[in-house]
Amino acid sequence: MTDKLILVLNCGSSSLKGAVLNNDNGDVLMTCLAEKMGLPDAYITFKVNGEKERVELAHAPNHTGAVEALLAELKKLGLYEKVGAIGHRVVSGGELYSDSVLITDEVIAGIEKCIPLAPLHNPAHLLGIHAARKYFVGLPNVAVFDTAFHQTMPEHAYIYAIPRKYYTDLGLRRYGAHGTSYRFVAEEAARFMGKDSSNLKLVIAHLGNGASIAAVRNGKCMDTSMGLTPLEGLVMGTRSGDIDPSVFSFLANNAGMNIQQITDMLNKESGLLGISGLSNDCRTIEENAEQGHAGAVLALEIFSYRLAKYIAAMAVAAGGLDAVVFTGGIGENSNTIREKVLTYCAFLGLKADHERNLAARFGNGGYITAENSPVTGVVIPTNEELMIAHDTARLSGL
Ligand code: ADP
């Protein structure tokens, strides 16, 4: 345990999210968000004790400028001296990393090697890592990979049924995502239920704007719904999830669309947004469904039905089912979707408790099935930043 603070960085191509956490108690002392990076009007917003401060990044509207501004802010707040290490979220570690690692030049080369698997994200993470090394001289940097937790999946879960050469030559396989969240939630769920995580069959649904589900047997991931990219699996805010790949040739032949246009449509215009024609935001969909909007009603039903089908499938991967765990913005807040899913899955032994399900909203978490339910349903709020902070402290020796 340490009294040092951890800086957690999550760099996207046009944004940078940061947080300073106390690794012991999870307290967040500061958060920041840099936006519009790459454009002349880029800026970074710092949030401390609920107060916001905006700093323009006009002189350097990029990751380097944002990290420089972050350093200045930490010095101003008197937090700089207390930061002991920096943890970086990295989307893809491919098959190279099955755990978080202390960043060395070799690890930077490894993250570069994985760029084909995360062409938008890994380059942005590298910009953040280089900037952190430049401005926070001497501090250890740790990479925490979204894919690492899924590296325990057996071959029969990660190999696609296509000619093997595409895997051996190009690394085309299923990798999954949201791994840091799954690891946190699996541990927390075991703790909450008073069970030993090394003897527990969990199916965990991480339902945010991106949504996926994973089977965790005795603390290890056995399968997950996202594949080579986050497009596979569940219905999401704007992603279709599983679809017949022949959609590509159908739309090319019948709508004159090219590969990029179809890929964009499946990633950005589909899911809750595509079905409802209204929004990718679950709250908006629920409000409109209550008013009787047919598209919104159907979107909720398809989302819930497809999720329920996946829960049953993931019970196969977990080799049984002790508990179904819900997390992420939708999983933690939408009692409507949880109730629909529990109803579909009643035959698996999930006995819904309406009152408990309502009480579990708004970050409260808790059981959503009856005390005598053969299979437990539970909501566990995720905290990826804290998991990154824990790994960073562990690997930095703090
Ligand atoms: P991200 O994947 O971007 O981290 P979140 O985990 O924050 O996303 O989840 C965002 C989703 O959670 C949105 O669809 C949002 O509508 C949904 N959500 C948040 N609060 C509620 C709520 N009270 N009821 C239903 N859905 C909610």
Automatic annotation (TrEMBL):
Pathway(s) annotated for this protein in UniProt: Metabolic intermediate biosynthesis; acetyl-CoA biosynthesis; acetyl-CoA from acetate: step 1/2
Main location class: cytoplasm
Co-factor binding comment: Mg(2+). Can also accept Mn(2+).
Binding site for Mg(2+): 10, 384
Site (Transition state stabilizer): 178, 239
Pfam name, any one: Acetate_kinase
E.C. designation(s): 2.7.2.1
Keywords, alphabetical: ATP-binding, Cytoplasm, Kinase, Magnesium, Metal-binding, Nucleotide-binding, Transferase
Positions of ATP binding: 17, 206-210, 281-283, 329-333
Residues the record lists as binding substrate: 89
Catalysed reaction equations from the record: acetate + ATP = acetyl phosphate + ADP
GO CC annotations on file: cytosol
Active site: 146
MF GO annotations: acetate kinase activity; ATP binding; magnesium ion binding
Class of enzymatic activity (EC top level): transferase
Localization per record: Cytoplasm
Co-factor requirement: Mg(2+); Mn(2+)
Family under the similarity heading: Belongs to the acetokinase family.
Function: Catalyzes the formation of acetyl phosphate from acetate and ATP. Can also catalyze the reverse reaction.
Entry protein name: Acetate kinase
Native species: Kingella oralis ATCC 51147
Name of the gene this protein is made from: ackA
